[in-house]
Specification:
Layout (H helix, E strand, L loop, with lengths): L34 E7 L5 E3 L5 E10 L9 E8 L11 E3 L5 E4 L4 E10 L16 E11 L8 E4 L4 E6 L1 E8 L8 E12 L4 E4 L4 E8 L6 E7 L5 E7 L4 E7 L8 E2 L3 E3 L3
Parallel strand pairs: 2-10
Antiparallel strand pairs: 1-3, 3-7, 4-5, 4-8, 6-7, 8-9, 8-10, 11-12, 12-13, 12-16, 14-15, 14-17, 17-18, 17-19
Length: about 270
Amino acid sequence: MRKRAIVVAVSGAFALSALAVPAAQAAPTAAPNVTFSNVKVNAGKNIVVGPTTKVTVTATYTVTKPASVSAGSLVSGPLLYRGTTFGPDADELWGGDDAGSCTTVSSTVLHCTAKIQFRPAPTTDFGDLTNSLAGTWKIGALATTTNASSEDDFKWQGNLGTVKVQRASKLTVDATPEPVKKGKTLTVTGKLTRANWDTNKYAGYAAQSVKLQFKKKGSSTYTTVKTIKTSSTGTLKTTVKASADGYFRYSFAGTSTTPAVTTAGDFVDVK
């Protein structure tokens, strides 16, 4: 069965999303003596999810096993978790819909891939993501055999890395008036928003530091003019003196829950 959201406590090893164990086959009923290594979720990149669309990422990992344990008897997959506990008693676990798929490299080594889905709630019956789930997750992995019958038949291995799950961000800029006389005041406005997984919309990101940057026409480099903070609704507004033709942009460095974002440059013609 699939363990849906983090808010669902693990009542037993069989509640894990990544491991829908098939019918019993001829295989040992004991925790498989395997180890996981080289675990990468989304190729080590942050996982960025918008307000409505499901995002599926790929995880890759290596399983090392005894030669006496057949590859066909193993079921495995990566799991994300938070907190200090990784195991059947963990309060926060995140896995994919299906177990991993493995290729035999040798009698003791398997190379595996798995998919992990992230669905903003409540767009579907299986909506998982809420705003509180954004941030850094630890990476673990789990293996069992095809005829597992108790929690003792599962191998848990944590501390295999970390990955950030982030709320997608947007940023705008508009410098006015255009054109403008040299020495006159320019007003530069914009707005920083990010995905709200609770409402399935973008919403303003308040009290965030954003850099106003300028690139003179003919130059390849932006320099920071000043740093301002977003309002309670995510809006930005500041003024500068027009000095030369060039491009203004806003740049947000990002947080653990929200990715960095920079606007395209807005060209201002200075007369």
